[in-house]
């Protein structure tokens, strides 16, 4: 053996140790099939241990791969080689520029992983894609199926949190204490809520669950809780608001103890001030008083009614107003009816007065002529 051969054998013996089929590089006691140990070189500043995977076809076209594959099936080789996990580096440009793929294959067959099985990809510019092997829009891009949440953040299992999904209606949704798995389901015991936007209709909706639920149970929502459309109209109880604020059910303004009045859309516990109030009635305005067919009560009848009831006919009593309040539009209509009746009484009295004047004048002339 010449000197060079003897020297090479010595270097290999010092560098590589084999113990029970474990290979060690830089260690005499390898702890796994391949155990690499490196030391810090203070002189040149390099540090750490490296295993270099190098595709020697330097001039190969774009798409050349280098990487590590993993298998746990116990099959030695051949057609049944089932490599179901791996880390691949894919060359996409000159000078070896490329992207790093993390791959898994969940198919129960003999097919090994390919780049189509990339679960996460780091592009050459640092953009990260999950379910997207070519991220280009943002620093982190997540693609996934429409039947599950894309992102969930919480403190632990069965704990409340926030999730993001794009369900089957293709409306991006931010959920609170909910996640999506073919339906909205609770992350933890309690209530849940959604903020959802429909690109199709341009409506942003806010909705909450009707009742509490347990982890994994389906959530059912209060329909159309709050909507904001593309015109800036807000709807409460409607998905198609026609005004800046459109409320279809009872609304209360006042203290927390204020209860809505049955049969009314707006209940106010307090004073209202306005420059103008317009009441639009469906019923006929009382111009019917001036119709020839209208039966006007005599003043004697009115006098008798007042004496018996202590209020005008057709006008609610003080007791009724105290108990039921005033219907502003209806009351205005009733008052106008009385004003028009009063006008007829004045006209009638004026005619009677004129006739009396004429009769007095006739009598005066007769008296003076004698």
What is the percent of helical residues? 10-25%
Beta strand count: 21
The overall pLDDT, averaged over residues, is 86
- Helices and strands, in N-to-C order? HEEEEEEEEEEEEEEEEEEEEEHHH
Structural class: alpha+beta
Q: Distance N terminus to C terminus?
A: 180 Å
Widest sheet, order of strands: 10-11-12-15-16-17-18-19
Q: Give the biggest sheet.
A: 8 strands, mixed
Q: What fraction of residues sit in β-strands?
A: 15-25%
Please supply descriptive tags for the structure shown above.
370 residues, alpha+beta, eight-stranded mixed sheet, six-stranded mixed sheet, 21 strands, 24% strand
Question: Mind explaining what this structure looks like?
Answer:
This protein is of the alpha+beta class and about 375 residues long. Among the domains are: about 1-50, no CATH class; about 55-145, no CATH class; about 285-370, no CATH class. It has helices at about 5-15, 300-310, 320-325, 330-370; strands at about 15-20, 20-25, 35, 65-70, 85-90, 100-105, 120, 130, 140, 150-155, 160-165, 175, 180, 185, 195-200, 205-210, 225-230, 235, 245, 250-255, 265-270. The strands form 5 sheets. An 8-stranded mixed β-sheet has the order 10-11-12-15-16-17-18-19, with no helix packed on it. The chain is rod-shaped and about 160 Å long. About 10% of the residues are buried.
């Amino acid at each position: 053996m010449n000197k060079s051969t003897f020297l090479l054998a010595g270097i290999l013996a010092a560098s590589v140790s084999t113990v029970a089929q474990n290979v060690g590089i830089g260690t005499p006691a390898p702890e796994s099939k391949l155990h690499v140990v490196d030391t810090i070189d203070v002189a040149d500043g390099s540090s750490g241990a490296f295993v270099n995977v190098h595709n020697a076809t330097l001039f190969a076209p774009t798409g050349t791969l280098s990487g590590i594959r993993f298998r746990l099936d116990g099959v030695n080789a051949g057609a049944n080689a089932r490599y179901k996990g791996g880390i691949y580096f894919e060359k996409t440009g000159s000078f070896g520029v490329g992207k790093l793929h993390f791959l898994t294959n969940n198919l129960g067959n003999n097919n090994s992983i390919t780049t189509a099985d990339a679960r996460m990809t780091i592009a050459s510019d640092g953009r990260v894609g999950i379910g997207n092997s070519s991220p280009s829009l943002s620093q982190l891009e997540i693609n996934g199926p429409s039947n599950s949440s894309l992102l969930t953040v919480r403190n632990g299992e069965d704990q409340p949190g926030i999730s993001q999904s794009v369900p089957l209606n293709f409306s991006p949704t931010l959920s609170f204490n909910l996640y999506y798995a073919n339906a909205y389901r609770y992350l933890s015991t309690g209530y849940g809520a959604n903020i959802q936007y429909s690109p199709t209709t341009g409506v942003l909706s806010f909705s909450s669950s009707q009742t509490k639920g347990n982890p994994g149970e389906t959530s059912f929502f209060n329909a159309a809780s709050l909507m904001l459309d593309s015109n800036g109209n807000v709807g409460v109880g409607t998905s198609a608001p026609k005004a800046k604020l459109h409320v279809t059910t009872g609304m209360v303004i006042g203290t927390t103890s204020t209860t809505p009045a049955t049969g009314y859309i707006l209940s106010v516990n307090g004073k209202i001030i306005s420059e103008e109030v317009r009441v639009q009635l469906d019923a006929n305005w009382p111009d019917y008083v001036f119709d020839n067919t209208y039966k006007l009560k005599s003043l004697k009848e009115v006098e008798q009614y007042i004496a018996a009831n202590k209020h005008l006919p057709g006008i609610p009593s003080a007791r009724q107003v105290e108990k039921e309040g005033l219907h502003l539009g209806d009351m205005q209509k009733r008052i106008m009816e009385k004003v028009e009746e009063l006008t007829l009484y004045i006209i009638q009295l004026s005619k009677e007065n004129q006739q009396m004047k004429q009769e007095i004048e006739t009598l005066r002339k007769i008296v003076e002529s004698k």
